[in-house]
Amino acid sequence: MTGNWSVDEQFEIIRALGVPGAFDAEREARERIAFLAGYLRQANARAYVLGISGGVDSLTAGLLAQAAVRALREDGYLAQFIAVRLPYGTQADEAAARECLAVINPDLGLEANVKTAADALFTEVRKSAGDLFGTARDDFHLGNVKARQRMIYQYAIAGAANGLVIGTDHAAEALMGFFTKHGDGAADVVPLSGLNKRRVRAIATYMGAPSDLVSKVPTADLETDAPLKPDEEVYGIGYDAIDDFLEGKTISKSAAERILAAYRGSGHKRALPIGPAFVADPAAAP
Ligand SMILES: Nc1ncnc2c1ncn2[C@@H]1O[C@H](COP(=O)(O)OP(=O)(O)OC[C@H]2O[C@@H]([n+]3cccc(C(=O)O)c3)[C@H](O)[C@@H]2O)[C@@H](O)[C@H]1O
Ligand SMILES: Nc1ncnc2c1ncn2[C@@H]1O[C@H](COP(=O)(O)OP(=O)(O)OP(=O)(O)O)[C@@H](O)[C@H]1O
Ligand SMILES: [Mg+2]
Questions:
Q1: Confidence check: pLDDT of 53 > 60
Q2: What average pLDDT does this structure show over 44-67?
Q3: Are 177 and 170 in contact (CB under 8 A)?
Q4: What is this structure's pTM?
Q5: What is the spatial distance between Cα 172 and Cα 110, in angstroms, rounded to a whole number?
Q6: Which uninterrupted H or E stretch holds 98?
Q7: Ligand 1 close to Cβ of residue 57 (< 6 A)
Q8: 179 CA to middle of ligand 1, Å?
Q9: Which ipTM score applies to this complex?
Q10: Can you tell me the distance from the alpha carbon of 114 to that of 86, in angstroms, rounded to the nearest whole number?
């Protein structure tokens, strides 16, 4: 026991997030491509839909999805990968997003700007609930609206194309609860689940992604007032510590405490909506 956490809790979290002990990029890529191909076919769906931001998570998921639909087509099953660009106004790292698209080379590329819808909704929210807003956190709340507008767009496309929405959540973000509930956290399949950040990067490298995109500084990029704010600045610790934690390594007490506080406070984001406990009444059985 160190401070208010134990190694047992660390390993319980590693198990809960499905992080395997051993890692081999080639095997992980192959199995995750096979998973995506198999799931699309058994769902009788015809497309995967994914937002491409310029970050390494969507780059990696996009490379896996494009490989999966290519394999399905070679097997005679009609399927496509639809990559979507969803900037809010002008995106500071637009060039990286373009580079990702060029690397993935998706079957279909779509683009829509979420600024009009996000701003319109947020203006109405503020107008109707003004007393609750007008704080320094307004920009933060608008950030979650942006993430949810991206979700709405992707589900509209999936509905029209008989497709499934890909989410890019992985173990490092799941651990920190670092996603918008029902925003980027909403998806049908999560092909990066169980991976920490350095393993996501290793798969991207294995899949042939250039090093500038693989090592790009991770950013949620949701705050208008702080474009490209690094995730690590928000966490107050680095992905290296988070990744080490998920690999069962010993990390500093202060980093472990930050991680555990984030994990313990975000359980609701990793679970289905909760209701009152249902207790079966044997007398009511037919
Ligand atoms: N105990 C509880 N049980 C059930 N539900 C609970 C709850 N506590 C809050 N909630 C609900 O959850 C809501 C808060 O969750 P949420 O709306 O997600 O909001 P929140 O967790 O406050 O903010 C999202 C965070 O994720 C980051 N993010 C978002 C999107 C993408 C990325 C990225 O890496 O790209 C990062 C973003 O920068 C921000 O720090 C509350 O408003 C409430 O509705
Ligand atoms: N501007 C955007 N255009 C399209 N999709 C986006 C955009 N911003 C975020 N997304 C979607 O939301 C997901 C979550 O963002 P997140 O920042 O966690 O991942 P990333 O940008 O792919 O990688 P990184 O975490 O390294 O920045 C992205 O993977 C992508 O699918
Ligand atoms: Mg990002």
A1: yes
A2: 99
A3: no
A4: 0.96
A5: 28
A6: helix 94-104
A7: no
A8: 6
A9: 0.98
A10: 6
